[in-house]
Amino acid sequence: MTTTLAQLSDPHIRVGPNDQRSAAALEAAVRSVLALDPQPVAVIVTGDLADGSTPAEYARFRELIAPLRMPVHVIPGNHDQALDWEGPRAVTSGDLRIVLCDTMRPGRDDGHLDLDWLAGELAPAAPTIVAMHHPPVPIGIGGLDAIGLAAAQRTALAELLHRSPHVVRVVAGHVHRTAFATLGGTPVVTCASTNLQARLEIGSDGFTIVPEPPAFLVHTLAVAHVQPVTATRRSCVRSR
Asked: Exposure winner among 94, 132, 168, 229, fewest CB in 10 A?
């Protein structure tokens, strides 16, 4: 049977009256994962689990993902300054090796990748998906590209990926929309948020968060699928 892996991203869980329906949105995404057939062997959540990085938000996040019957692997985003997690590591799920990176920089929105560590984790020549929060490619929306990985890091990662043909895909979050690119000959895909999305504003200096439809990704060794989430629409619009 084909190994499938689900990727959720950027739920930005809030607790309280101004939660922007973040909990209801993640609950709907979890239901959508549980409705998949076949069931994924694991779920990864590529950062920004909580909006304010508070203990109450992380407790609520854990409650919401508890129905998932498969292993759930999380990595921190820039909003996860206080996340208590297992640290960067590699895990094996079915026929996929998943390298979970930490690109969070304390007190900052942009990211940094430990390339020396990643090079060591890519030494085993097994089919590998590399997961991180900050995309290693610009997506053309200026306000989001400004808080991604630095250009020098993207170039160095491209060289590493070129030397690592067993990396089948790099997956990321952070930008609140699905986008596709290549880096060092390797496919790169970003995952939409389970809640609010970034408006498509190619060439803009900033970015705008809007209530467009949520989605998540389903990965196999050969392909990545965008899977919509059925959820109640929201009316909140936030600009930056």
From this structure: 94
